[in-house]
Design brief:
By secondary structure, this protein is α+β, with helices and mostly antiparallel strands. It has helices at 3-19, 64-80, and strands spanning 23-30, 35-42, 45-54, 87-95, 98-102. A hairpin with a 4-residue loop joins strand 1 and strand 2. 22% of the residues are buried.
């Protein structure tokens, strides 16, 4: 997927989350391990959110290796910003104009 199409999916996910009372506080946070697409707060919980979009089951693009990179990057984010709060890892799936939130993704 091109970077431009990925950005469109992220923009759709951002609006979707805002409509559900998430406050997006950061976007495209990079570390040497990887990237977190969106970081948001809702109900005093920090959400690290991976956005996947496409036509053919994009949820399967979130592999155990990808999740491991997200977790390491989240640890850096928490340390860098000196945050001590509840957090979780979520995914927003944008597929054929349908958007779904999957909370607490794990393998």
């Amino acid at each position: 997927m091109s970077r431009a199409k990925g950005k469109i999916g992220e923009d759709q996910a951002l609006l979707f989350l805002q409509d559900r009372d998430f406050k997006v506080i950061d976007r495209n946070f990079y570390s040497r391990f990887g990237e977190i697409d969106l970081i948001a707060i809702k109900d005093e919980t920090l959400h690290f959110i991976e956005v996947k979009s496409g036509k053919w089951d994009p949820v399967h693009q979130i592999t155990p290796a990808k999740l491991k990179k997200i977790i390491k990057t989240a640890q850096i984010y928490l340390s860098k910003n000196r945050l001590d709060m509840e957090y979780c890892f979520d995914a927003v799936i944008v597929e054929d104009n349908e958007i779904n939130l999957i909370e607490n993704i794990t393998f």
